Every structure is written in structure tokens, then in C-alpha cells.
Amino acid sequence: MPITKVLIANRGEIACRVIRSCKRLGLKTVAVYSEADAKSLHVASADEAVAIGPAPAKQSYLVIENILKAAKETGADAVHPGYGFLAENSDFAKAVPHAGMVWIGPTPETIDDMGDKERARLLAKAAGVPILPGSGRFVPGDPDGLAAAGEAVGYPLLVKAAAGGGGIGMRRVDGPGDLKAVVESTQTLAEKAFGDGSVYLEKLIEKARHIEIQVFGFGDGRGVHMFERECSIQRRYQKIVEESRAPNLPLETLSKMAESAVALVRQERYRGAGTIEFVVDATSGKYYFLEMNTRIQVEHPVTEAITGLDLVGLQIKLAGGDALREVTQDKIAATGHAVELRIYAENPAKNFMPSPGPLKTFRLPPAGDGLRVDTGVREGDQISFHYDPMIAKMIAHGPTRLAAIDRMLKALDETSIEGVATNIGFLRKLLSHPAFRAGDCWTGFIPAHAAELLQG
């Protein structure tokens, strides 16, 4: 079905990002907005905009009926979910085509398969992808076999929500004495956060790297990868710096990881853009499947920077019926190095607590000369406590890793934000840290260097 008008079921930076690709493709756009976002940048950027409810996301951006009503009223013939909110909601993925519109994303069945972390592990194993030692599912109120499972997996281990993601519903256990209590508390959290209290156990890699492979499937058993992203620099299990390519990993390991990711894409006949995430043991160099995200990622611009591809544009074209036969593995090449920073309204000195408030001053450096700037806010806008406090992403591209890092440092020096606390000073220290510049990336980097990064 040809696409002429796309409704973006999201807000902020990603909504603005999707709108840009739609405009490049000559498509009309529809924004949706809550009461808090009535004067936001994504509303101003779209051809049309429709109010969908009060500020809380549960009353607006998460209400499927309101979004479908907006699409019908405006004559939108396709829906792009962005990331977050309803992007990995299989009910939404079913409802959109049922209402006569094109869903720009993978099938609902794939979303369900990969959204259940235990099921995803089994599917990855069937595709020949290495997986970490782990257990079966434990539902609330049924601890039968828990102690034995803990011993079989080995300590330390992680208790993980089967329906979780993004670091939510994940707790460390160092010994058998704590296992039962941690499982019960994680089940309670998972039930509240995801409506599913089941958890499973997974071996914890002490010095781990978080590497993800950008993949694209065509829905017919074909699939390609667009190289890897290094996503190990995290706070509270959430990424704040991403880059490509990954430093200090053998090309042979990266190639095998990419081949594993594509094998899973082909097996599942995956459709559209997705990301397959791996944990790499920084000591042994071995890699293991972590999860698959069935959507565009926050960090997709680093892949676009090194490949020259428009991932959102490819999503839209495929959904509109273009088989994309020209997108083949041999034509996808990586040039140079790219680094992305997430700029947040948050206070690093207070455990990165969000800092809502007005953007009294908001000046970002101009794009160009190796720099891309993605944002969904303007000077005078309010950073609301209702939503994620990310203000902007900056992506620097250069011929080498150090050139990209130095370009980013220059961009940070040209950035001025007042009215809210931000992580800019923290990011500047991080990029300047000798260990980071040497490529010593692992998920414990920030805690290990907290004294230096958080001083002053």
C-alpha cells in the first residue's frame, strides 16, 4: 500500500527525526501531542497536529484509541511509532493495520517473540547465536526449583524481568542467601512496570561490554547488518554515550557477532530496522545474546553517520511496499568513526536525578563540519517531569575515533543551556578521561571512575 501521509505516534526528538525523513520522501506528516506539548517543536514541524489527551503519557501517548482516532481524522495512511511509548506494543501493531493503515515496523508476532526475553533467548539459541547460562521462567508465588536454578547458573547472577528492557526490572545477586528476596522484589516491580511479574536468572559477566548490531530485515528471509555500536558507557543501566565502530575489539569478533545477528533476522523473517544486543566478556572476548529491540534505537544516528544510510527512510520505504533490493550487504560500508552523546536535564551529582524546568537559554552548535544535532526542544520550552528528560543528541563524525571525540568536545564548548541542570560538564570530563580516550569501555566505567567524573 503506497504511503502518502504518516502519523508519528510519539513526541520530542524522535518525532522531529521521523518528520525529517518523511519530508525528504515527499510525505505529509501528522503530529500528536498531549496538553503539555501543545507548543512543542514536533507539533510545529508537522503538516498537521492533533491533541490526544492530558500530559501524563498513560492518558495521551499510550492511549491507542486516541492515536488511531487522530490518524483517521487526518487521513493518515501510515503510523510510525518512533521509540518508547507504544513502539514495541504488539496490540498497537495489530490495531494500526486493522484500522486500515500501514504499520511502519515489524510484525506483532515478532514484537511478542522478542519482547519476552526468555522466549527471545530460546529463538536466538535456535538460530545458533551464543546465549548466556540462564534459567527458565519463575512466576510470582512459585519459587519451586529456584535455589537449584541459581546454583546451575552460578553467582553472581542477574534476576531479570521476562517482559523488561532498558535496565528496568534487573537486579544483581551475589550469593544464594539473597536470591529469594531479590526474585520476589523484582517480580513485584515487573508486575507494576510491565503487567507481567515473571522473571528469569541469567549469568552476570563481571567486566562486560554492551555491543549492539544494527540490523535490517526485509520480511522475506533476507537480512543485512549495518555494523556495530559500542553502548557500554551507561548510568543506571541506561546508555549516555554510543559510538561506532567499537574500539579495541577484534574485527573477527565483530564480524562473527554481526553474522549471528543476521542469522536471527533471517530465521525470524524480521521486517524493518532492529537491534540485536550482545554482552561481551571484556576478559575472555566471548559474546552472548542479550536481547533484540524491535524498533529504531535512540542511538541510530551513529550508524547513519558511518554508513550514510537513512534508517528511518528505509523503514518507511519498506512498509510502503518497496522491496529495497538495492540494499545488499556488499553495498553497506563504514567510513570513519562516530560518537553520540545524550544531553539530559539531570544532575549527575545527585545520582543523575532528572531536573525538569524551563530552558531559559538553549543554544546548541550549528550542524555541519562533522556534527549532527537532533533535538525536540527550543529555548523557552519546559522540560516536563512527565517525560524522559533527554534534551538533545549530538553526533560527531570524524576520520578516526579521537578526531570524532575532539569534534564532540568542541561542540560541547559551544553549547549553552540554562534553567535546568544538565550532564554537559559530566560528559566533557568523560570524553576527556584518558581511559575513555584509550577505548577502555565497559558497563562499569562510570562507577569505576565516579570520583574523577563527578568531582567539582
Topology:
Blueprint: E1 5-8, H1 12-24, E2 28-34, H2 41-45, E3 48-53, H3 64-74, E4 78-80, H4 90-98, E5 102-103, H5 108-115, H6 117-126, H7 146-153, E6 157-165, E7 168-173, H8 176-194, E8 199-203, E9 208-218, E10 223-235, E11 238-244, H9 251-267, E12 271-281, E13 287-293, H10 300-307, H11 311-319, E14 337-344, E15 346-347, E16 353-354, E17 357-358, E18 361-363, E19 371-375, E20 382-383, E21 390-398, H12 401-413, E22 416-418, H13 424-432, H14 434-437, H15 445-448, H16 450-453
Helix pairs in contact: 4-5, 12-13
Organism: Hypericibacter adhaerens
GO molecular function, one term: ATP binding
Domain Biotin carboxylation: 2-451
Describe the structure.
There is one protein chain. The chain has 456 residues and is an alpha+beta fold. It has three domains: 5-104, Rossmann fold (3-Layer(aba) Sandwich), CATH 3.40.50; 133-203, Dna Ligase, domain 1, CATH 3.30.1490.20; 208-453, 2-Layer Sandwich (D-amino Acid Aminotransferase, Chain A, domain 1), CATH 3.30.470.20. It has helices at 12-24, 41-45, 64-74, 90-98, 108-115, 117-126, 146-153, 176-194, 251-267, 300-307, 311-319, 401-413, 424-432, 434-437, 445-448, 450-453; strands spanning 5-8, 28-34, 48-53, 78-80, 102-103, 157-165, 168-173, 199-203, 208-218, 223-235, 238-244, 271-281, 287-293, 337-344, 346-347, 353-354, 357-358, 361-363, 371-375, 382-383, 390-398, 416-418. The strands form six sheets. The protein has an eight-stranded antiparallel β-sheet, sandwiched between helices. Strand 6 (157-165) and strand 7 (168-173) form a beta hairpin. Helix 4 (90-98) packs antiparallel against helix 5 (108-115) and helix 12 packs antiparallel against helix 13 (424-432). The radius of gyration is 21 Å and the shape is globular. One of its GO terms (molecular function) is ATP binding. This is Acetyl-CoA carboxylase biotin carboxylase subunit. Keywords: ATP-binding, Biotin, Ligase, Nucleotide-binding.
